[in-house]
From TrEMBL:
The keyword Aminoacyl-tRNA synthetase does not apply. It is found in: Mitochondrion matrix. PANTHER family: NIPSNAP-RELATED (PTHR21017), PROTEIN NIPSNAP HOMOLOG 1 (PTHR21017:SF11). The lineage of its organism: Eukaryota, Metazoa, Chordata, Craniata, Vertebrata. The gene is NIPSNAP1. SUPFAM superfamilies: Dimeric alpha+beta barrel (SSF54909). GO terms for biological process: mitophagy. Its main location: mitochondrion. Pfam families: NIPSNAP. Residues 154-251 form the NIPSNAP domain. Coiled coil: none annotated. Belongs to the NipSnap family. GO terms for cellular component: mitochondrial matrix. It comes from Denticeps clupeoides. This is NIPSNAP domain-containing protein.
Length: 253
């Protein structure tokens, strides 16, 4: 019968089979997000009754334009779309809160005391079958979403990552993004803070579906893009692509 002479021998033996992890000194949100701004983003997914989609778009345009123009509300519409390919009869809205969580809290407090907005929510609820949202931060190495003229189609690529892989994802994409700038297709890159966690959204703009295919094929001809894909694919649990059409009032056209 074999036995260890003392506890230190047992500790040495166990250490051979334990994976040592270096302690991280900060959260991945602080390591990956932009330091020069304190903007917080919210993305909304609204599933609309098919017969109500047109009325929903008109109602949303009226309310969002009011909020977008009102300087008393520290929020702005970045983009609004209807899904073309993906979930049907769906609206997607991206908001920016300049000032982070305090701005979000201020905006929500004001809206809760806004009678017109309460009426809007009541009317909107009759048109929806489901809705969900997420709070996002912006990757430091991505382009900041800015208004652009159209016509364009937009692709929202959503990646559900394995827990614990966000830093690795960011390290690889900090290098990979340079391969996707030639046609000005990169709009914005975000990761979730509240809602479903370890979710990444990449937003791209293309003239049309053929331009999308040509642009993506061009990336494969650049040395280094294949390595980026090779190292990031194992980090993904599942992924989804939406092709979206901007609404008339969207700053991203």
């Amino acid at each position: 019968i074999c036995s260890f002479s003392d506890s230190s021998d047992a500790g040495w033996f166990r250490s051979m089979f334990v994976h040592k992890v270096n302690a991280r000194k900060d959260t991945h949100s602080n390591l990956l997000s932009k330091k020069e701004t304190s903007s917080l983003y919210k993305i909304q997914f609204h599933n609309v009754k098919p017969e109500c989609l047109e009325a929903y778009n008109i109602l949303s345009a009226e309310v969002q334009n009011q909020l977008h123009r009102d300087e008393n509300y520290p929020c702005e519409v970045v983009g609004s779309w209807n899904t073309w390919y993906g979930d049907q009869d769906q609206a997607v809205h991206l908001w920016r809160y300049s000032g982070g969580y305090p701005a979000l809290t201020e905006c929500l407090d004001k809206l809760n005391h806004n009678k017109e907005y309460k009426e809007f929510r009541k009317e909107r609820s009759k048109m929806l079958t489901a809705r969900r949202n997420q709070l996002l931060l912006e990757f430091s190495f991505w382009n900041e979403p800015k208004p652009r003229s159209g016509p364009n189609i937009y692709e929202l690529r959503t990646y559900n990552l394995k827990p614990g892989t966000m830093i690795e994802w960011g390290n690889h994409w900090a290098r990979a993004i340079k391969y996707r700038q030639e046609n000005n297709e990169a709009v914005g890159g975000f990761f979730t803070q509240i809602g479903e966690l370890y979710v990444v959204h990449h937003l791209w703009a293309y003239k049309d579906l053929q331009t999308r295919e040509d642009t993506r094929n061009l990336a494969w001809q650049k040395e280094g893009w294949d390595a980026s894909v090779y190292y990031t694919v194992p980090l993904i649990r599942n992924m989804e692509s939406r092709i979206m059409i901007p609404l008339k009032f969207s700053p991203l056209q």
